[in-house]
Each structure stands twice: as C-alpha cells, then as structure tokens.
Amino acid sequence: MSNILITGANGQLGNEMATLAPQSAANHYFLTDVAELDITDLEAVRAFVQANRIDVIANCAAYTNVDKAEDDTATADLINHKAAENLAIVCKEADAFLIHISTDYVFQGDKNIPCKEEEPTNPLGAYGRTKLAGEQAIATVGCGSLIVRTAWLYSSYGNNFVKTMRRLTSERDQLSVVFDQVGTPTFAGDLAALLFKVIEEQLYLQHTGIYHFSNEGVCSWYDFAKEIASLSGNSCDIQPCHSDEFPSKVKRPSFSVLDKTKLKRDFGVTVPYWKDSLVICIRQLEEKANQTV
Ligand SMILES: NC(=O)c1ccc[n+]([C@@H]2O[C@H](COP(=O)([O-])OP(=O)(O)OC[C@H]3O[C@@H](n4cnc5c(N)ncnc54)[C@H](OP(=O)(O)O)[C@@H]3O)[C@@H](O)[C@H]2O)c1
C-alpha cells in the first residue's frame, strides 16, 4: 500500500481527485488544502510527509488567477514556484515521487501547430513565469517527478469559463466572446482520471519528466461558449470578437494547443474529445442545480 498526498484538494482538479480516491483498494489518499497543509511552509510539508510516510505527492494546489498574478506576483511566485520547490525538496529527502501540474501558459503560443513538451518556453505573463519557475525548480532539486502541463481547465467545482458562460448566456440576449485565442478545453475529471491511473498502476516508476494533457480537438473561446450555451439550452446570441475588445494587463497565448502524442504513447490512454467531456460536466452541473432546489 502507498500513501498518497493530494494538495489543493478544494480546487477544481483536487476535488476531482477527491472523488476518485475512495475507489482505490491499494492506496491511502490524504486530501489536503491550505487549511490542512500550506505548501508554502517547508517545515509543515516535511513534517506531514514524514508523519504519514507519504510515497507520492500529487500537487493540485496553485495560484491560478492569471489577471491577479500580474499585481500579486509575489504570492503567485510563492505558491507556483517556491511551494513547488518545497514539495520537490521534501520528496527528494523522503524518496517520494512528485506529480506536479503545470500549464500551456509557459509557452508564447504564437505558432499554429500543437506544442510538444520539448519546445522552447516563453511565458507572456506573471502566472506563466511563476509556473515555469516551479517546473524548473523541481528539475533543479532532482526528485523523481512527473510534470503534466494542461490547459483551459474546467469542472463542476470552483469558478471557470463553463460556469460563467452558462450563467451569462442564461441572463443575456447577446454576448461577445473572443475567437482569436485557440486551444483545447480540459475537463478536470479527465485529467484526474489520468493522474489516478498513473498513481494506481504506478506508471510513474517507468515514465518521468514533462507531459502534455488536454482533451482532444481544437476550438476558440467563441466555439467553446457556443457549445456551452447550446448544451445548456440557452438561446443567447453569441458573436465572435477580438481580444483587444477586452483590454487586459495580460497578453494570452493566441494558439495554445498542446500535443499529447507522448502521453498517449507512454501511458496507453485514449483522450476524450472536448465536446464529449463537456456534455458530462454540463450534466453534473444540472444534477447539482437540481439537488439545490
Ligand atoms: N484553471 C485552469 O484553467 C488551468 C489551466 C492550466 C493549468 N492549470 C493548472 O492545473 C492545476 C489545477 O488547477 P485548478 O484550476 O484545479 O486550481 P484551483 O481550482 O485554483 O485550485 C487550487 C487550489 O490550491 C489551493 N491553494 C492555494 N494556495 C495553497 C497553499 N499555499 N497550500 C495549499 N493549497 C493551496 C487553493 O486554495 P484557495 O482557493 O483558498 O487559494 C485551491 O483550493 C494548477 O497547477 C494550475 O496551475 C489550470
């Protein structure tokens, strides 16, 4: 039996991991968020890992507010970079394995071909820079690690584009959504299923390093919004617009499609198409809404 520490268990991905954890017959999962274990506190992480004989840490914790990270870069750096380094240091000391989640925002995203793992990074903003610094710190510490970069994450938990668009397209008659940023949505339930498989089947013993994971397919935020509205039964008139119509401090990648060839080959997984996973998430949101009335 292995002891698995999940950090950031109250987040989108962490919640999805928490729903899978009870299905494990082989391992014991410790579900923590900042209240139980603040990963910016090196001594606290060290004490937790030692006391509970942790074998694998799956780090689902992060500072994910891309806009706020521009003004609050120190906090973003503490959580996305320094805390990732803390986890790596403790994993190295305890001979534990670190599974860490990173982002498509480490890339500039100015090409029109899917990004492979080894392509040069060049983040456009503070969030991406701090996440890249986290990846680099893990590599420098040199613990056993698997870093999974993902993109456009959503789930029935937390705040995300799917929930925002469901609300806005039910409230408004007309809405403009950018069509000049292209990527692939990722249902956090699918990413959690991948991580759960990697942990339960101990695939991390054979495959380490950086991997890319998103759902299959490609779309713009406009296409994503149209599909969300359609599946939600909302008849809002959604029009495509350019990013510069929404002034922002952060420049976002215009093409951030991740190439998943390496992940599918090494882990033997089939990745769901983004529209199929969106159907599942919308169904979950409807079930939750029905439970609250
Ligand atoms: N969301 C996206 O679109 C997206 C895209 C690409 C990659 N990713 C990556 O995917 C991973 C999961 O993202 P997510 O959307 O599930 O994140 P999320 O919903 O923002 O959840 C992150 C969780 O980490 C917690 N946390 C923050 N500081 C902490 C600390 N010091 N110690 C312990 N926990 C702490 C947060 O608590 P509070 O809420 O209280 O701060 C929150 O519960 C992250 O690595 C993220 O960078 C996300």
What report would you give on this structure?
- By secondary structure, the chain is an alpha/beta fold.
- The protein has one domain: Rossmann fold, CATH 3.40.50.
- 42% of the residues lie in helices and 17% in strands.
- The strands form four sheets. The protein has a six-stranded parallel beta sheet, sandwiched between helices. A two-stranded parallel sheet has the order 6-9.
- Helix 1 links the parallel strand 1 and strand 2.
- Helix 1 crosses helix 7.
- The longest helix has 22 residues.
- The chain is globular, with a radius of gyration of 19 Å.
- 44% of the residues are buried.
- The mean pLDDT is 97.
- NADP nicotinamide-adenine-dinucleotide phosphate (NAP) binds next to helix 1, helix 4 and strand 4.
Q: Any chance you could write out the topology, listing elements then pairs?
A:
Blueprint: E1 3-7, H1 12-20, E2 28-31, H2 42-51, E3 56-59, H3 68-71, H4 73-94, E4 97-103, H5 126-141, E5 144-150, E6 153-154, H6 161-171, E7 174-178, E8 182-183, E9 186-187, H7 188-200, E10 209-212, E11 219-220, H8 221-232, E12 237-241, H9 261-267, H10 274-292
Parallel strand pairs: 1-2, 1-3, 3-4, 4-5, 5-10, 6-9, 7-12
Antiparallel strand pairs: 8-11
The site of NADP nicotinamide-adenine-dinucleotide phosphate has 27 residues, from helix 1, helix 4 and strand 4.
- Structural class by sheet pairing and helices: alpha/beta
Q: Overall pLDDT, averaged?
A: 97
Largest sheet: 6 strands, parallel
Radius of gyration: 19 Å
Number of domains: 1
Text of the CATH class: Alpha Beta
**Which strands sit side by side, in order, in the main sheet?**
2-1-3-4-5-10
CATH architecture level-2 label: 3-Layer(aba) Sandwich
Which distinct ligands sit in these coordinates?
Answer: NADP nicotinamide-adenine-dinucleotide phosphate
What is the end-to-end distance?
41 Å
Number of strands: 12
What is the succession of H and E elements?
A: EHEHEHHEHEEHEEEHEEHEHH
Percentage of residues in strands = 15-25%
Number of helices: 10
- Unreliable segments of 5+ consecutive residues: none
Q: What does the overall shape look like?
A: globular
* Helix content bin: 40-55%
What is the CATH homologous superfamily assignment? Answer: NAD(P)-binding Rossmann-like Domain
The CATH topology corresponds to Rossmann fold
